[in-house]
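Example 3.2
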Amino acid sequence: METSSLKNESFNWTCKKTWKKSAKNTLWCLLGCSIGDFGTILFFQINDYGWSTISIMILAIINGLITSIILETFILLKQMPIINAIKTALGMSFISMISMEISMNLVDWLIMGEAKINLWILPIMLLAGFLTPWPYNYWRLKKFNISCH
């Protein structure tokens, strides 16, 4: 009896529909996060304020979270009243967003050696930012049926 109950509790990682939906959700999050993140790094790249790389990246992460919440609220306004849209956007998975932000900034730091944006590094940063939280977003959607859209 224990063996059959374990089989029923095994997690299914092969659902194409869930992978597709979780990819869409992850891409929306990536768009929102990257606007604030890249904008902050570019601002400090253009304007030399003497901030350390870690300070710039922490601010970039915070700004990425903020812009992601703003974008998500805007998208959700088509589906619900503003108060509900804000609550839903704030209830998004910060684990997913923070892992996305950290991975993008880590790639930037490891390759560039500092907080610096070049056109050729953007696809690498975006790929890391997408792939890092995607399995978690799949799991969350599959296990709890929780997503942002």
